[in-house]
Write a structure and sequence with these properties.
- It is a single chain.
- Helix content is 92%, strand content 0%.
- The protein has 59 residues and is an all-alpha fold.
- The mean pLDDT is 86.
- The protein is built from 2 helices and no strands.
């Protein structure tokens, strides 16, 4: 039983997979956050354009 436990502690392949998973999750969170902020900025820009055009048109 102690050999099995010692071998389990020496095996690093699972830890590497978990590290890659965590890195991928952090990158995904960054992309989602950036896309949300960019979407808000684009929406605000279109709102300003719409308001400017409506004012210039006299509506």
């Amino acid at each position: 039983m102690s050999k099995l436990f010692a071998r389990f502690l020496k095996d690093k392949s699972g830890a590497t997979a978990i590290e890659y998973g965590l890195i991928a999750a952090l990158i995904a969170i960054g992309i989602i956050t950036a896309a949300g902020l960019l979407g808000t900025e684009i929406s605000d820009t279109f709102d300003k354009v719409r308001t400017t055009l409506a004012t210039a048109n006299g509506s």
